[in-house]
Amino acid sequence: MGKTSRLALAPQKPPVGRFAFWASIYRFNMRSHSQQPAAIPKPVDSVTPGPSQVEESVRVPQLDGLRGLAVIAVVVYHYFNSAAFHWLMRLPASFGWCGVDLFFVMSGFLIGGIVLDRRSAPNFLRVFYARRAFRIIPLYYCLLAGGAIGALLGFRLGAAKYFVIQLAFLQNIALAFTQKTSNLGPDWLGPTWSLAVEEHFYLLLPLLITCVKPARLRAILIGLAASSFLLRVLTFVWRPAHVWVISLFWTPCRIEELLYGVLVAIAARNASTSGAEWRPRATSLWAGAALSGGVLVVATFLDRRNDSYALTNTIGISGAGLCSVMLLMLAVGPTGGIFARWIAFPPLRWVGLRAYGIYLLHMPVQLAVDSLRSSPPDVQGRAVALILTGAVASLSWTFLEAPMIEVGHRLRYQV
């Protein structure tokens, strides 16, 4: 992305005043979605990268870096949170699941921003859902098709019923109603539960925002986020079998963090249009990140001998979500400072650009590597899996994901 500015808008007189950054974000989103000639760049509209044809100058490097950080955390969790590795390696890896929380907050922020900016377009729902489909489905269905073919050829990749559930993005719903962890399918499909949650979010958020009056939207979103937290608490009061599975994977229990991201998007737009004084200091954001992260750590520590994970799956998840909100605001806000510069580190951005492919493919690659090695899991084997995951994800991005995204972006919002 070179030495371009963080938002790199078309040349114009920069905004002045304390709220210049949020004004820039608002103009960036509105101009990126306009129907003007092709010189106007397409938006980056999901937690996964936009099309390769998007000019690098319009990307926000910090968001790509955050994606990279999130997917690295998830991969480290799945690869090294095992008794086969030294506890000094397992300890930080055991918190890698929080990368999913960061993905959720970013998705709420970016997708919520698109819906807020484009909800008045006559063809909004058709274009929005089509673009989401071209972004998510091609690689995901290719993965399922490969697994189904492998299972038919005799490889132990899971029963056919798992692929049917996964095909319809129903894995976490099946899990909640049957209370069986096996309904997530084989281990290599396990990470797709979060994809199902996001798909449900994509389906429902546009309908919610278009049907609710803007003056009431923020209050309703706060109420829904609070209800999601209370629902997780109630599952432990109710205590069904496999209660921790329901509180961790079921969409109504996890919508909280996605709504946090939407609330940040609303706050950014309100500050840019009304001049309201909303400019958190970096010290306040760091304090908030430390406090919410501390809640997560304490909850996890107290749950270390509790098989139900009652604290981790209630206040711990909320702590991870709020910490992710603080990191997001530090990364793309006007007061991020050193963190905003660090998170835009080119290798992190490279990983972030391929985050979706890495997320979906790292477990199948690990399965393949482990099946070819006779020794127990070790650092060398995981290093090979990491390299292969990066290579396969790069091929996926170049030859499948980016071309499909470009097809989706041929559909334009009407003004």
Per DSSP E runs of 2 or more residues, the count of β-strands stands at 0
Q: Give me the secondary-structure category.
A: mainly alpha
Strand content bin: under 5%
Average pLDDT for all residues: 83
Low-confidence stretches: 1-57
Alpha plus pi helix count: 17
From the spread of the alpha carbons, the general shape counts as globular
Instruction: Give me the strand/helix succession.
Output: HHHHHHHHHHHHHHHHH
Gap between N and C termini: 30 Å
Q: Over all CA atoms, what is the radius of gyration? A: 21 Å
Helix content: 55-70%
Largest sheet: none
Keywords:
415 residues; mainly alpha; 17 helices; globular; disordered N terminus
Describe the structure.
The protein has 415 residues and is an all-alpha fold. It contains 17 helices and no strands. Helix 8 (192-211) crosses helix 11. The chain is globular. The chain starts with 19 loop residues before the first helix and ends in a 7-residue tail after the last helix. The relative contact order is 0.15.
